[in-house]
Write a structure and sequence with these properties.
The protein is an alpha/beta fold. The protein has 17 helices and 24 strands. Strands 6-9-10-3-11-12 form a 6-stranded mixed sheet, with helices on both faces. The protein is globular and about 70 Å long. The relative contact order is 0.11.
């Protein structure tokens, strides 16, 4: 019998951009019906390689083979036509449409010149059952949680006939229970003969779900088709970044008695009068990191936006350094020393087409070194950007490149460097290590530890429960807009924290 061709074979893939080689002679082979994990720090070339495989970019050199046949992808439509689908880290769903409408959008079945909703509904139900995705086609997407939304994204690519699924950092926004469900779905997809390319920097997850593993470092393949039964997370970390796997942890306590932020009875209502932040009270002292755990959509975003002045409080007070700032505008809060790492760096942290030195000024455009009197101080901003690039290890060809040219980890280090400049007293850090590699993650943890030791008060919001447990002095749980538990970071497990986040308070001190 002839040898079965692999589902995907990339050979000698090279892709250059001005000032940087993103991929250099990358080889990757993925067998049919397996879960293949691709690891590498941000900037290693994973995203570029996946964009090439999905037709979003074309390689300068090298070849792509699907099921043994050489192909050239000029657009994602070409990749989809060959059975390659991609689920992006940032979901691309329309909240005001149903699951069915989202799944068929752009690929609507027709009968007699009209959309055949009955046929689409039947097919979606069959696929949902076959692959264990358990999605109701008739519910609005806006009513779904993160895990369900991800399953809708998977259904979208399956509906279009994908036999190879690229999952880009699929667990970045999931709690442990949802991760377990996703891994169950992946096993079902594999059992049905589909091939999954799993992109992740969470090495324990990679080892638990993958059939084989490849590693990229600095744009090239350093290991391919590793057996997860024969490699450790420590070894993978060494292959990725040349160092041991870092762990989130705080050392000796630096917590003082000086309260920097006091939130008392804070309530924020929707336009319909429903509380999304419901009588929240908490305090953060200088030298303290206060963690906030919650499934996304339970009020943590609205809470931090209200602290920042982006939203208005309907009841309660916010006191900062002894001053009532409840009704201060955002600019005044920023100028008073409140730093902010937003949860979505692309939408709220950067102007992607802007140069690095221009992004350095965002949120700080009224303060030195970005201005001199009423004028923008380009020289000052450029000089300080060069300092941030050096001190925070932002890997870039120069400060004039657009922020979009940087990897996710380097974009995040630029934001952290910007926010830590100007002697802040309070840092709101929302998902500071989301979607970044183990090296950048370790660097940001160290920046937080240094800031804490210097007396900064920090509010940390994260979907990474080990990060929350390891990096928090005090840890609260938010559910449906209310603080429902305070747990001991020294004793709580990720499973117990996940249970508290979903309403089953297990092992938490309320």
């Amino acid at each position: 019998m002839p040898e079965e061709m692999p589902a995907v074979r990339l050979t000698s893939i090279t892709k250059r951009f001005p000032g940087v080689v993103a991929n250099r002679d990358v080889d990757l082979t993925i067998e049919r019906g397996e879960v293949h994990a691709l690891c590498g720090e941000n900037g290693a070339g994973k995203s570029t390689l996946m964009k090439i495989l999905y037709g979003m970019q074309r390689p300068d050199e090298g070849t792509i083979e699907i099921d043994g046949k050489r192909v050239v992808f000029r657009t994602p439509a070409d990749a989809i036509a060959c059975g390659v689908g991609m689920v992006h880290q940032h979901f691309k769903l329309a909240d005001n449409l149903t699951v069915l409408e989202n799944v068929i959008l752009g690929a609507e079945p027709r009968r007699g010149g009209r959309i055949d909703f009955a046929r689409a509904r039947t097919r979606i139900k069959e696929m949902s059952e076959r692959y264990g995705l358990r999605v109701d086609p008739d519910v609005l997407v806006e009513s779904l949680g993160v895990g369900d939304r991800q399953r809708v994204e998977i259904l979208k690519v399956l509906y279009r006939g994908a036999r190879v699924l690229i999952l880009d950092e699929p667990t970045a926004v999931l709690v442990p229970q949802e991760v377990d469900e996703l891994f169950g779905n992946l096993q079902e997809l594999r059992a049905q003969g589909l091939t999954v390319l799993f992109i992740s920097h969470k090495l324990d997850e990679v080892l638990s779900v993958a059939d084989s593993i490849s590693v990229l470092r600095r744009g090239t393949t350093v290991a391919t088709r590793l057996d997860p039964r024969e490699v450790t997370s420590r070894r993978l970390a060494e292959l990725m970044v040349g160092s041991e796997l870092p762990t989130p942890e705080l050392r000796e306590s630096t917590v003082t008695e000086d309260v920097q932020l006091q939130v008392s009875g804070l309530t924020v209502l929707t336009s319909e009068g429903r509380p999304v932040v419901d009588e929240v009270s908490l305090r953060i002292r200088r030298g303290e990191i206060v963690g906030l755990a919650g499934v996304e959509g339970n009020g943590q975003s609205e809470l931090i936006e209200t602290i920042m002045g982006i939203r208005s409080a309907d009841a309660g007070t916010i006191t900062y350094g002894g001053d009532d700032i409840t009704h201060w505008p955002t600019r005044r809060r920023r100028e008073a020393g409140i730093a902010y790492i937003p949860e979505d760096r692309h939408r709220h942290g950067l102007i992607l087409e802007g140069a690095l030195w221009e992004n350095r000024m965002l949120g700080h455009q009224t303060r030195r070194p970005n201005v001199r009197g009423p004028w923008v101080d380009r020289r000052g901003a450029r000089r300080d950007t060069t300092r941030i690039v050096r001190e925070y290890d932002v890997r870039t060809p120069g400060i004039d490149v657009p922020a979009a040219a940087l990897s996710g980890g380097n974009q995040q280090k630029l934001i952290v460097g910007r926010e830590m400049s100007g002697d802040p007293h309070l840092l709101i850090a929302a998902h500071p290590t989301r979607g970044i590699d183990v090296g950048a993650q370790a660097a940001i943890w160290e920046y937080l530890r240094q800031a804490r030791a210097a007396g900064l008060a920090v509010l940390l919001i994260s979907a990474d429960l080990e990060e929350l447990i390891g990096m928090s002095d005090t840890l609260h749980v938010i559910l449906r807009g209310r603080l429902v538990a305070e747990v001991d970071p020294g004793t709580v497990t990720p499973e117990q924290l996940g249970s508290a986040m979903t309403g089953a308070v297990d092992g938490a001190d309320t």
